[in-house]
Design brief:
alpha/beta
Amino acid sequence: MLEPSFLNSHSPAYSPYVIGPPLPRYGTSLDVADARRGGSILAGLLRRLRRERRRRKVGRAYDMALEIARAIPNAYEILDVGCGNGFIAQHLAGLLGSYVLGIDVDGQPEAPVNFRRYDGKHFPAGDHSFEAVLFCYVLHHAQDIGAILSELKRVLKDDGSVVVYEDIPATWWDRFLCGVHNRQWRGRTGECTFRGEAEWRDTFQAAGFEIVQQRSLSRWRNFAHPVCRKFFVLRLSKAQN
Ligand SMILES: C[S@@+](CC[C@H](N)C(=O)[O-])C[C@H]1O[C@@H](n2cnc3c(N)ncnc32)[C@H](O)[C@@H]1O
């Protein structure tokens, strides 16, 4: 039997803001009509929940893209390593008018962005081909941090910038949340390695980078994951150039 048009989200009559007119009875019993009405309310609520989740994801990515755009205002070619859903890359391309390439070892972006999957070892990019490289909550996933930082040095232009966001296990609460994150991801991309702020500084400096900006971010920027966070902007240290 054909569905009434207002039950079908692909129908032109569908509106995200209206659950629909009262259900026609089609000569059926009152019970069946009531059950259908209940189903359509549930379907409407689920649609709203999905839309709300997507809005939060896109909004969070937009806030991060604004923050990144302020740190790398002149970057035209940007590599987003571990781009995930791709919304940060999409917003950045719009905000800066830049070419942004997203790469990831897993999944497929939801946003319509330039994307290449990679093996977690070799960035699919030429030597010194990017003016900025982003690692947004990605470096703790790296199985070989030395290899990923050496790939970074290979693809980054000499005066290029690197933006890093990291979750920091500063307190027992942060360590608990990092543990939860690890359990969610280890089956897909391997065990996470979370580092403290000083440990990240040492890691970046040992790899030949200087830290030109460092900030603490509010743990409440994501109510679903209220962990201590840091934002770093790095450049190749002068001795490397
Ligand atoms: C917490 S998500 C962050 C996604 C996105 N950057 C963001 O901020 O919305 C971590 C992402 O890193 C990716 N990832 C895991 N291991 C990686 C690796 N070795 N190299 C690059 N990306 C990796 C995962 O597939 C995932 O998309």
